[in-house]
Write a structure and sequence with these properties.
Low-confidence stretches: none
Shape: elongated
Order of helices and strands: EHHHHHHEHEHEHEEH
Helix content: 40-55%
Structural class: alpha/beta
CATH class of the largest domain: Alpha Beta
Largest sheet: 6 strands, parallel
Radius of gyration: 18 Å
Length: 251
């Protein structure tokens, strides 16, 4: 099969943004006087719940409050989440760093005419803010499809977001490769029929990635080569190239 598109998750995959999200949540909680503060260890567990509004709803459900008070707080979740996203966007404007190899592989795909897409559970505003901050003002236009969390009824690990991206690309999953960092993202992509490369972060390492086509610490770069490569997981270089992806897909 020819390689026709690369489909990227955003948070954790393009850039390790979860600490930024955690801080933005906490600042939003402070703004609304909620008295909540998600510590890093707690947030690792909360990341099993995909979607920021869903994460907050889960948290509210665990609180020792009356049912009426829980309903009252839950009604304000969209407002709290919107404030959190505005805070996060200002953080993104100050700059997150792309993970090693991301910019290079995107450049290789663009040069080869391989299409680019995004399938993420975060909001469109968060996606645009991160792309502009890390890849430049015009980078949003590099992606033929940007599918985000509010576009589908079910978030990852349901396959909906990848199925939507494939419909918009008018491509079959077998001709595309997904890039993820989490087990929920992996399950979503695989359920939609996409071979998947997983690059875990400190937030997701140790999860079960057995269904991934390839698991790497990161995508690698000439100035940030992957250890024990080529030979351990990769065949030709110490970084994942578009050529190797094409070769693997054709095998």
């Amino acid at each position: 099969m020819p390689l026709e598109a690369l489909v990227f998750d955003i948070d954790g995959t393009l850039a390790d943004t979860e600490e930024g999200h955690r801080c933005a949540f906490n600042l939003a909680f402070e703004h609304f006087g909620l008295g909540w503060h998600w510590e890093r260890g707690e947030y690792v567990g909360l990341l099993r719940i995909t979607g920021g509004k869903e994460r907050m709803a889960y948290h509210v459900a665990t609180l020792t409050l009356s049912a009426a008070e829980k309903r009252r707080i839950a009604a304000h979740i969209p407002e709290i989440h919107a404030k959190k996203n505005r805070i996060y966007a200002s953080m993104a404007a100050d700059g997150f760093l792309l993970r090693p190899g991301v910019a290079r592989l995107i450049g290789e795909a663009r040069a080869a005419g391989v299409r680019l897409a995004i399938a993420s559970t975060t909001t469109r505003d968060n996606i645009d803010a991160l792309l502009r901050a890390t890849l430049g003002e015009g980078s949003v236009a590099w992606f033929d499809v940007i599918a985000c969390g509010d576009d589908v009824p079910r978030k990852k690990p349901a396959p909906d977001i990848y199925q939507l991206a494939l419909r918009r690309l008018e491509r079959d999953g077998s001709t595309c490769v997904a890039f993820e960092d989490s087990v929920n993202g992996l399950r979503s992509a695989v359920a939609a029929g996409l071979p998947t490369v997983v690059t875990p972060t400190a937030w997701t390492q140790g999860s079960d990635f057995v269904s991934a086509g390839l698991v790497l610490p990161h995508l690698g770069d000439p100035d940030a080569p992957l250890p024990d490569e080529p030979g351990r997981n990769l065949r030709h270089a110490a970084w994942l190239t578009l050529g190797e992806l094409q070769e693997r897909l054709a095998a």
